[in-house]
Design brief:
The chain is flat, with a radius of gyration of 43 Å. The protein has 3 domains: 99 residues, Immunoglobulin-like; 118 residues, Sandwich (Immunoglobulin-like); 112 residues, Immunoglobulins (Immunoglobulin-like, Sandwich), CATH 2.60.40. The chain starts with a helix and ends with a helix. It is built from 2 helices and 27 strands. With 393 residues, the chain is of the alpha+beta class.
């Protein structure tokens, strides 16, 4: 074959190869161009489906998100039902109704059908407030556009009856002691002010007024009135509250005295009683257990400490003697402690005590009016002394 023919054949083969490669390279591009409209169509379909679902979603519409009561008397209890409407196309779920400080939610409708109206009832007790207040309830719902919404109660709380210097008294008493504190009651009413009666706290065990609270009240002379409070020319009343005595229980004080007046806006005024009634003395420990001991063990000697809680005159507390219910096994002795109002009662397993169990008590005699006799239980298991311990003696 001539060289010219060979060259022609090679050029033809090269041209065929180039065409084949070009065709192969064009296939992905064409595939991409074909796939792109399909992906766009799928995405558009998804968006359309999401739009349809969104159209079916619940919609929270609050008919009146703010309730304004205007000026009200202190102590008035506010109850208001907010109307909540579902303007969407699926069930509206109220997941939670969270009240702010000073507000409580009495009840709310958990599911509201499309087109229907539910309620969220809020309660505010204004006894602890004065002046402008804004109490809120935060709703959490399944509304995708507004998952949280707020309801608000507005009011201006006016105290028509108030106490000077405060509407509470506080005591720090020893059991058996009594103390008196006073408050001055005044009014902002136009009509002449008058205290009509007083109600004491109720003892839940007897369903009768407690015996450890006593209250008296008197109209205050012009010269003794609290200055710059109440409507000028109005009468003021001094309320004397005495707490304590032999019937007062040890522990925290948390009671209310209810004072009734002729005020048309605020006929009842509560005065809180706070503080504590402390025991007259402390005993440490209140029970003794020697465990297993021999008369010669270090643990055969134990101590009971008595401390007076009288902060003014602790030295007035005296322990006169202590007696063991098993003197043949456990002996006692008494001596003053390092501080005023402290005493040490020492209990000692008797040197000649026979082995066995001890179940007894020590009786401690004091000059305390509330707790003149104190009994401390004690236990022990007395073991025989080992020969080594005996021979060492």
């Amino acid at each position: 074959m001539s060289s010219k023919r060979i060259l022609v054949v090679m050029i033809a083969v090269l041209a065929a190869l180039t065409a084949s490669l070009s065709f192969a390279a064009d296939q992905p591009a064409k595939a991409k161009k074909t796939a792109a409209p399909k992906a766009e169509k799928a995405e558009a379909a998804k968006k359309a489906e999401a739009a349809k679902e969104a159209e079916k979603a619940p919609r929270l519409t609050i008919v009146e998100p703010v309730k304004d009561y205007g000026t009200i008397a202190k102590g008035e209890k506010l109850d208001w039902s907010f109307l909540v409407k579902n303007t969407g196309d699926s069930d509206l779920q109220i997941i939670a109704a969270k009240p702010g400080c000073g507000c409580t939610v009495a009840d709310f409708d958990k599911v509201i059908k499309p087109g229907e109206t539910g309620k969220v009832t809020a309660h505010v007790d204004t006894a602890a407030f004065a002046g402008p207040i804004a109490k809120t309830v935060t709703l959490e719902t399944n509304d995708p556009t507004t998952p949280t919404s707020q309801l608000t109660i507005h009011a201006v709380v006016k105290p028509y009856v108030e106490a000077f210097p405060a509407g509470f008294v506080r005591f720090n008493l020893l059991q058996g002691d009594a103390d008196t504190q006073s408050v001055m009651l005044y009014s902002e009413e136009d009509e002449p002010f008058q205290v009509t009666k007083v109600e004491l706290p109720i003892d839940p065990t007897t369903n009768e007024p407690v015996k450890w609270v006593k209250v008296t009240y008197d109209k205050v002379a012009e010269a003794d009135k609290a200055p710059n409070v109440g409507r000028p020319g109005q009468d003021q009343y001094k309320v004397n509250i005495t707490v304590g005595g032999p019937d007062a229980r040890v522990g925290a004080l948390a009671e209310k005295v209810h004072i009734f007046t002729n005020s048309k806006h605020q006929p009842e005024y509560p005065v809180s009683i706070a503080g504590v009634v402390r025991p007259t003395l402390r005993v440490e420990p209140t029970m003794l257990n020697f465990g297993e001991v021999t008369p010669s063990d270090v643990a055969a000697t134990r101590m009971v400490m008595l401390h007076s809680n009288n902060l003014k005159t602790p030295e007035s507390f005296v322990v006169s003697k202590a007696e063991s219910s098993v003197p043949a096994l456990v002996t006692t002795s008494v001596k003053p402690g390092a501080n005023k109002g402290e005493y040490e009662v020492t209990l000692q397993i008797a040197k000649d005590a026979k082995p066995g169990d001890v179940n007894g008590s020590v009786t401690i005699y004091t000059n305390d009016k509330i707790n003149p006799i104190i009994t401390v239980p004690m236990k022990a298991t007395i073991k025989a002394a080992t020969p080594a311990a005996v021979s060492s003696k």
